[in-house]
Structures are given as C-alpha cells and as structure tokens.
Design brief:
3 domains, alpha/beta, Rossmann fold, Four Helix Bundle (Hemerythrin (Met), subunit A), 434 Repressor (Amino-terminal Domain), 8-stranded mixed sheet
Length: 446
C-alpha cells in the first residue's frame, strides 16, 4: 500500500537532508519532486498544488532547533499536512440510539461493495451488534448468492425475497429486523458498470423510503481519479456520510485516498485490503500518513494482534517460553493466529523502517502453508520432542506434507534457533538474540 508514493517522497526528502538550514532554494527542488510524486500517484491536480503550497508556507517559516535537521522538520510538516489532507482524525460510523440502525451501501459494480457488506457485518458483530444483511442487488445473478455465502461464514442472516423490487425489499427488511431483534440493517444496493440515471434514481428512492442513518460509498482505490469523480457524482445525488476504499492491497497509487476527502468533503471511514472478511480497517489519517512516510503503523499492528490473541492463551504461552517448553504444536497455533491477521508483507510493513527494507524482498505467504503441512504430518510425540525426528521420520514427514527432506531440515533448524533465542530473551540477553536472528523461510532478496 502506497509503496511507489512512499519511495518517491523519500527520494524527494533526501534532497533536503544534509542541508544546514531550510531556505527557499533548497526546499524548492525537494517540493518539486514531492509534487511530481503526488501527480504520479494520481492525486487531483488542485489538491496536489494546494498541498505543496501549504508545505512550502509552513517550511519557510520554520526554524530548525536543537538536534533537529532540515530533513526531519520537512518530514514532520509533510506528515502533518498529509493527516490534514486525509481528514485529521478517524470518523466512526453512525449508530442510532433507536434500533435498528440502517446503513445503506452504494457504489459501482465491481468496486467490492457486496464483500464490504459482509466485512462490515463481521466488524459490527465483533462490537456486540446483531446485524442483518439485505440482498438489495437483485440484478447481478451472483450477488445474492455471494452475500449469503459471506453471511454463512459469520452466522448472520440475510433478508431476501424473490421477485420483490429493491425499494420494497429495503422497506420490508426494517420490519423484519424489528421483529427478530436485529439492531443493525446493512443494505447492499445494486451497482452498475457506470453511473446512469436508472441506478442513481433507485438508490435515491431507497434512501427516501428507509431514511438510513448512514450511507457509505464504496469505491475501488485502484481507479485513482476515476474513483474521486464517481464519488463526487454519487455525493451530489445521495449526500453520503462516508467513503470506503477497497482493494488497497492491489497496485494502487494512492491518489484516491489522498484526494477524495478534499474533493468530496466527506471522510474516509474504512479501507479494505484483501478478500477475507477480517481484512477491514478503520481509516486513521495519522496512521496512513505514517505508512506513506515509512514510519510504520505499530498501533494498527497491535490492534490486529489483540483481535486474534486471547489474553489467557498469551499467559500460558509466556509460561511455556519461560520454562523452555515451547513446542512445534505451540508454534503451529501461533502461526495460524498470525495468518488470520493478514498478509505477512503488510504486517511487517507496519513496523517502522520495514516498508523500505522490504522493497527488494519477496515474501511468500505460502511458506506458512508449507510449514503448517510439515508440522501436521508429524506425530504428536514428534511435535513435542523434535529431537527424535531421525532420517526415516524426516522422509515420512516429507512424503506426508508434499515437501522435500531439505524443507524438514530447514524448519527443524530454524525452530531450534527460535528456541535458543527465546531462552536468551528470558535471560535478558537481547544483544545475543538479535545477533543470532536470521531471515525465516519464505523470504528472498531479488
């Protein structure tokens, strides 16, 4: 996410680093590169121009104090302006005091709208709500089936009536929610391949009949300026409350995320990365700005970990590590928890400085699956005591997991090193632990 933009902004800032002080001359060249980076990322021209003007104005009046360098001052100013550009702070969705809360989801076909409805239902269920999904996209044959499939994964009901037009369907879903004590109604409206009057009129009619507390516009972040233009057209007709950017894990240049707030004057509320239902994040402007500038996003990483790891399990695991009883069985359980958090590259990219370090490194998420297959091919005794795994056992495990004996050897060696590092960590020998760390299987430098 924002990899190209981050790289180009970093190169631009390098031009200012090493200078003794900030002057109009040495800042102009760097800002010219930043402007070029923004335009390459498909940021709206007027938005990019205003951003550069604001940064220039603040930078030229800034005095470099103490141990700070001009480069550090410029990074701070750019970070603050990026935060302002994207909305200053996170914006929550509206939850009505009177049940049910009605949320209408609109957008073009192919933007990830139906998948987002499933993700939002899961997100709200995790917060203690009882959502109801409404299959209002009756024109795309697979839309209703897709919504039902997503709902079945999180055990949430779907309201759907054959032959009923979307406006009446939305109306009846409210009565259904009241009858069956569902406190949030999420209406998946129909999308089209382009903006047309029929589609716009239909969503306007649904809005008029059900008076939703929240209207969310879903747009594909990969479409750049087109996403911004589409959002503008929808907002003129619906006056929606917030934006959802999908496909942020794809080859997106970041223009939509940086432009849409300024152009539409509506907050980005969620970003979606990946097809899994758990791949949904609230949009935090300050955290996204930090990611763009390569500062990482530790807070989001911690939140993802807290969602997956049980506090009691963590204490049990800590005791095992202290007693040097951490086994391959425990390792397998932790591996599965990490997989649920998302792409390994995205997770590592949230650590400060790692986004830059990983630019020339390929990370194979399938390595997790291979490791899982190897451990599952072991007996319970072998998982708890890997030292008994001799040559014949390694051949059997390799055949059972569809891997090579070399893969078994590599995993066992890495696990042994991991145990040694954990032992050193419990003794407080951090320097020795860092010295012995090696890049795990699945990483490869280009």
């Amino acid at each position: 996410m924002f990899e190209n933009l981050s790289s180009k902004i970093e190169q631009a800032i390098k031009r200012i680093r090493g200078q003794a002080k900030i002057t109009e001359e040495n800042i102009e060249e760097g800002l010219r590169e930043v402007r070029r980076a923004l335009l390459d990322a498909d940021v709206n021209f007027n938005v990019a121009k205003k951003f550069i003007d604001d940064v220039r104005e603040k930078a030229l009046g800034q005095e470099v104090k103490g141990s700070l360098t001009p480069g550090q001052v410029i990074v701070k100013i750019i970070h603050d302006e990026l935060v302002t550009l994207m909305g200053s702070s996170k914006t929550d969705i509206t939850i009505s005091h009177q049940s049910p809360t009605v949320i209408m989801v609109a957008g073009l076909q192919g933007s990830g709208k139906t998948t987002f409805c499933g993700k939002l239902a899961r997100y709200l269920k995790k917060k203690g709500k009882q959502p109801l999904l409404v299959a209002g996209d009756i024109y795309r044959p697979a839309a209703i089936d897709q919504l039902k499939l997503l709902a079945s994964q999180i055990n949430i009901p779907v309201f759907s009536v054959d032959g009923l037009d979307p406006v009446k369907l939305a109306e009846q879903s409210i009565d259904y929610a009241k009858r069956y004590a569902r406190d949030v109604v999420i209406i998946d409206t129909a999308g089209r391949l382009s903006i047309d009057e029929e589609m716009m009129q239909e969503v306007a009619n649904i809005k008029e009949k059900v008076t939703p507390h929240e209207i969310l516009f879903v747009c594909d972040a990969m479409t750049g300026q087109d996403a911004v233009n589409t959002a503008k057209a929808f907002n003129e007709r619906l006056s929606f409350n917030g934006v959802v950017l999908t496909k942020m894990d794809g080859d997106t240049r970041g223009g939509a995320a940086l432009s849409i707030r300024s152009v539409v004057e509506k907050p980005i509320k969620f970003i979606s990365m990946g097809e899994k239902l758990e791949n949904l994040e609230q949009f935090h402007p300050e955290r996204i700005a930090s990611r763009i500038l390569g500062m990482g996003d530790v807070l989001t990483l911690v939140e993802k970990a807290q969602q997956q790891f049980d506090e009691q399990e963590a204490k049990v695991l800590e005791d095992k590590i202290r007693k040097n009883e951490f086994s391959l069985e425990d390792f397998l359980q932790q591996l599965r928890q990490i997989k649920k958090m998302g792409s390994l590259r995205d997770l590592l990219g949230m650590l400060p400085g790692m986004d830059k370090a990983l630019r020339n490194v390929q990370i194979d998420d399938r390595a997790f699956s291979r490791v899982e297959a190897i451990i599952l091919s072991m007996t319970k005794e072998e998982r708890h005591n890997p030292k008994i795994i001799n040559g014949s056992r390694r051949r059997r495990i390799a055949v059972g997991s569809g891997t090579q004996v070399q893969d078994i050897n590599r995993l066992l060696k890495q696990f042994e090193e991991m145990q040694r590092m954990m032992k050193q960590m419990t003794k407080g020998n951090a320097k020795s632990m860092l010295r012995n760390m090696k890049m795990p299987t699945g990483f490869r430098r280009n």
